Amino acid sequence: SEGEGSSGSGSSGSGSTGSGSTGSGSTGRGTSSAAGSSSASTGSASSGSRSATGTAVNYFYGILSVQVSATGKKLTNVTIASINDGGNFRSQSIDQQAVPILEQEAMQAQSASIQGVSGATYTSQGFIQSLQSALSKLGI
Questions:
Q1: DSSP letters spanning 29-98
Q2: Cα 96–24–56 angle (5° rounding)?
Q3: Which of 14, 36, 110, 117 fits a 20 to 30 Å CA distance from 8?
Q4: What CA–CA distance (Å, rounded) separates 61 from 88?
Q5: CB atoms inside a 10 Å sphere around CB 86
Q6: For 48-93, what is each residue's pLDDT tens digit?
């Protein structure tokens, strides 16, 4: 389970058990790692996976909030809970490229200490701010 590294960032634990509570589009990846990490996934299902949504942050082009799921101190899923960029096409296209990278960076770092995405400074700052808020709510 730990050896999966970045492929485990698709919330393989709770996603692969079929609990669906942290799925959010990454359950497809979770099933591929289910064979290799069934013990880890049953562990996360029974040891109290919890989630928190960070503060909604105005990031200049709109408002976004981040949802974090964790088991113990380990992040099992980081995703956008809500995003409203006012229908601005340029902002939407930047967000579509930046958000998956930010989610992946947060999973790899297991914290809010992430680089952010070049060319998406406002989105990155808003994401990090909401992420920190969610982590604080979880005591991480």
A1: HHHHHHTT-HHHHHHHHHS-EEEEEPPPEE-SS-EEEEEEEEETTEEEEEEEEEEE-TT-HHHHHHHHHH
A2: 65
A3: 117
A4: 8
A5: 9
A6: 899 999 999 999 999 999 999 999 999 999 999 999 999 999 999 9
Which structure tokens are listed for 99? 């958000």
pLDDT band at 112 (very low <50, low <70, confident <90, very high): very high
- Averaged pLDDT of the chain: 75
Amino acid identity of residue 53, one-letter, is T
CB 10, CB 24: distance < 8 Å = no
pLDDT score for 59: 95
